[in-house]
């Protein structure tokens, strides 16, 4: 029962600024913004952490949800996340990171608890600042770059015209997955969305 009373922290990983807004690396921001819109919450600067934060509840009498978009740029996301987890007294097991994932094809979503960072600097920073890798990840597949394109350039570029046709639907699904973890639990979310075990 105590766990149910504690808030959840949903972190959208991305980079601040209009020039990054539609990048592949910013799908976390997109999903967090959609969840905020769904629960009628508005983002504003937090007084204790370098992040934009929105607060609300999932459903009537549902758990408190803190939505965060770190403003430190991707590689330093962990500092604001750890500060917010401490400020809101969120157990690390109730922290959810929504992020882009090169190792999953575009159009696929996976959710897992803990594990490695797969070279993702935002996750690496979070793990370091939180002192553990034991938090939930909603992994939004962006696929591998074509040809010899550098992965860093690839994730910092916008989705292709073909990808954009599905993007709104996929961001909607990512928001669904994150909400399902909070309301129904990780295992239910894994079974419901692609029956994924996260690998």
UniProtKB/TrEMBL annotation:
Belongs to the PTH family. Gene3D superfamilies: Peptidyl-tRNA hydrolase. It is found in: Cytoplasm. NCBIfam families: pth. Keywords: Cytoplasm, Hydrolase, RNA-binding, tRNA-binding. Pfam families: Pept_tRNA_hydro. This is Peptidyl-tRNA hydrolase. Its EC number is 3.1.1.29. It comes from the Bacteria. The record marks 15 as: Discriminates between blocked and unblocked aminoacyl-tRNA. Monomer. The record marks 100 as: Stabilizes the basic form of H active site to accept a proton. It comes from Plantactinospora solaniradicis. It is an enzyme of class 3 (hydrolase). Hydrolyzes ribosome-free peptidyl-tRNAs (with 1 or more amino acids incorporated), which drop off the ribosome during protein synthesis, or as a result of ribosome stalling.
